[in-house]
Amino acid sequence: MSQPAYKEKNIPIPASDPLTHIREMVQACIQCGTCTGSCPNAFAMDHTPRHLWRMVLMGQIGDIFRSRTFVLCSACYYCTLRCPRGLPLTEAMAALRQIAAKENIGMHRQSIQFYKSFMDSVRRYGRVREAEFMTHYFLSMKDPFLPIKFAPLGMKLMGRRKIRLQIPLKGEGGLDAIFRKVEEIEDM
Predict the structure, then answer these.
(1) In the structure, what pLDDT confidence band is assigned to residue 10 with cuts at 50, 70 and 90?
(2) Comparing C-alpha atoms, which of 140, 118, 137, 128 is closest to residue 166?
């Protein structure tokens, strides 16, 4: 199956543009820069939030999904709270992450798999079991060298008793019923 063209380069936006909903959310943006000035992660982003909204409005789909800006959003809601137009900017960032996850865009695969592994652990146990969570994450990434990159951090955290090795047990107090109900609601 071939990759959608917008993953590779900017193309004219078709009627079934995946950004239509997001464009409606930020249509009233006046490019004041308050979102960027409010963002605690703007220093690490390759495009500022203001620049990202401009790219959304201009339909630069390829540039948007090559960017790491929406992945670095910490959902702190500062941009939404301080926006003079009252735009739902945090929700727009989340919508971009959802599109990236749905389309399984390669450069965002690592953060998407991290999130999925984290949520699977929460769903199963009602909390995060760090060792099992990281094991599932490493296996999902299919990169034998990835655990080696994380080993020094893991040892440091274990030494400070921030994480501990636990034998995986069958879900104890899992949140599976809540997750299923949310999935039902989202499918409506």
Answers:
(1) very low
(2) 128
Q: What is the CATH number of domain 5-103?
A: 1.10.1060.10
Q: How far apart are CA 96 and CA 47, in angstroms?
A: 14
Interatomic CA distance for residues 163 and 141, integer angstroms? 21
Q: Report the distance separating Cα 118 and Cα 127, nearest Å.
A: 9
Q: Residue with structure tokens 């990835």?
A: 146
DSSP annotation of 126: S
Record the tokens describing residue 27, joined without a space: 């249509």
Specify the pTM.
0.67
* Amino acid in position 171: G
| pLDDT at residue 22 greater than cutoff 90 | yes
In whole angstroms, give the CA distance from residue 11 to residue 114: 30
CA distance 181 to 140: 26
Counts of helices then strands in the chain (DSSP H, E): 11, 0
Q: Looking at residue 173, what is its pLDDT? A: 62
Q: Where are the domains of the chain?
A: 5-103, 109-187
Would you call 9 helix, strand, or coil by DSSP?
A: coil
CA geometry: angle 104, 106, 112, nearest 5 deg? 55
Query: CA-to-CA distance for 74 and 69, rounded, in angstroms?
Result: 10
